[in-house]
Inverse folding.
């Protein structure tokens, strides 16, 4: 079974959303046969990737960074999306952090990078805004020698 993980921004500007959606579909369509998608189901890239992977019939493994992860969702729609997708997961992995911290996010991101065959990064190419951010997970995966596919609309700035 091919395992594809995701890392990415929680906020995807409207002018990049269609491009990102199509890029994720294209990456997932490249793989025939059984597929497992690994995601922390954060708002934005993680949930979009999980939704598209499930549409394609992939198994979903959810990587939960901390015991209080649900409390980190500021947006009711994002929390509802997290809960809905989590119910559809075939497997759940929990990091041993009681609270959501940068270390917890880093641990979840590196677990995904360690466990996948390919990492998809919805990333604007800029440095991470904190420990465990997208840029840091991309660098980690590349250091492991994992193939990384970056999806972003050129010329679009993230908020």
């Amino acid at each position: 079974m091919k395992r594809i993980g995701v890392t990415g921004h929680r906020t995807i500007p409207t002018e990049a959303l269609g491009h990102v959606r199509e890029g994720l579909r294209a990456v997932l369509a490249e793989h025939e046969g059984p597929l497992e998608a690994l995601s922390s189901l954060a708002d934005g890239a993680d949930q979009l990737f999980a939704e598209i992977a499930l549409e394609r019939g992939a198994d979903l493994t959810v990587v939960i960074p901390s015991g209080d992860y649900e409390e980190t969702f500021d947006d009711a729609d994002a929390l509802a999306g997290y809960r809905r997708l989590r119910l559809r997961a075939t497997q759940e992995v929990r990091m041993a952090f009681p609270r959501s911290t940068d270390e917890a996010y880093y641990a979840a991101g590196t677990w995904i990078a360690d466990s996948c065959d390919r990492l998809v990064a919805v990333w604007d190419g800029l440095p991470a805004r904190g420990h465990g951010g997208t840029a840091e997970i991309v660098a980690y995966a590349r250091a492991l020698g994992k193939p990384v596919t970056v999806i972003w609309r050129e010329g679009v700035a993230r908020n």
